[in-house]
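Q: Here's a chain of 487 amino acids. Please give me its 3D structure as tokens.
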Amino acid sequence: MNPIGPHELQLTRRQLLSKGRSCIGAAALAGLLSGEAQPAAGYSSEAIGGLPSLPHFAPKAKRVIYLFMAGGPSHIDLFDYKPAMRKFHGSELPESIRQGQRLTGMTSGQKSFPCVAPMFKFTRHGERGTWVNAELMPHIASIVDDLAIIRTMNTEAINHDPAITYINTGTQQLGRPSMGAWLSYGLGSPSKDLPAYVTMISVGNAPGQALYSRLWGSGFLPSQHQGVQFRSGKDPVLYLTNPPGVPARLRRKMLDGIAKINEERFADLGDPEIQTRIAQYEMAYRMQTSVPGLMDTSKESAATFNLYGPNASKPGTFASNCVLARRMAERGVRFVQLFHRGWDQHGSLPAGIKNNCNGVDQPVAGLIKDLKQRGMLEDTIVIFGGEFGRTIYSQGSLSATNHGRDHHGRCFTTCVAGGGFKPGIDYGQTDDYSYNILENPVHINDLNATILHNLGIDHQRFTVKYQGLDARLTGVEGAHVIKDLLA
């Protein structure tokens, strides 16, 4: 007598479909753990995971390195220089320019809004003779012919947390997937030994605004797509090292046992997060071997360290993280995001921004040069920018050598290089106060749509059902690809 037979004859349709779903999930999991790649149509690189429908068309880029200057770098003092600023330095910001813009609580009570011209020297660089503050950024000035400088970025957010959340997730609401999580979910990972999405944090001359792990979170996507934060120091990833007395073979045996338990649990419940847990255990095991080799830069040449600057060999610095970003890109990490804190200069801006630039100027230029000489820049998108810019008017008192600037989202500058973006161009125009956009605005979601386009993704078709809506990275308000930025 077979006791299982009568039971199976009594299965409801829902129970039958649930069992079938478990089989499908188990098959998918087996493919993941075996490391078998799933080639995407029109894309020569193999990827583990991802959606079978992606990419939508042949991509120009394979990966992204996002250099995020948290705090809001002053576009006025770095890229968006207007000679006319010298004429109205110290004069009140005209109401015809401000146009009733809402202000943050830090300057809304000011009775005077004196305009401030940059206290550093701008000069023209590159074949097009674009204005760049070479006194602060001589190395970036030397590579402007590799950059698309977008001067008309804009956002509705005026405070840090909603602004950083907005540019990273496409909405000011909390709990949505970050860009790296979307790419991990959609395109999968070219590497079976490293996460698809890695983030690292460095600090400039001042700690600045706090950064929360939800900025590299997966939101409503499976949690395996969230960013993995790498740290400087002995343990780049917490709890990755086996404790004393636990050899690798014992760890392998333990994980195999846990996987069997989780597979049985998944068969009962069909919860996709159980699959995620199995995959993350497996990834952690593989990372025990891959991460130490990745983080060991002792075999990098002296010429490489010289390219990235004097701090390149000091763990935890922005320069060192840039070297690691290139190494991750070589090893198949899809999305690397380097957060550099300390750009929130409400006061003492001249000293603060000079210290910031001393820490990032050469590493940024060095990264782009390094990728270019290795033949990787053509399929790597490099982004340099923050969540918003700064005001033309001074926050607090204005003196001959000192001032501050408040948040400004109406226009700011982001630089993009490689990965299908047109090099050596200035895009968009602001007024003489660098306060309003005159032509070619680029919303932060427009930039994200263009980044997705170069990765072979139609942002309007890349959606996930969530709370009855077709959620997407670029929001619901008509973001579009900026075709003039495409190579």
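Q: Can you summarize the key feature?
A: Residues 55 and 456 are 5 Å apart (CA to CA).
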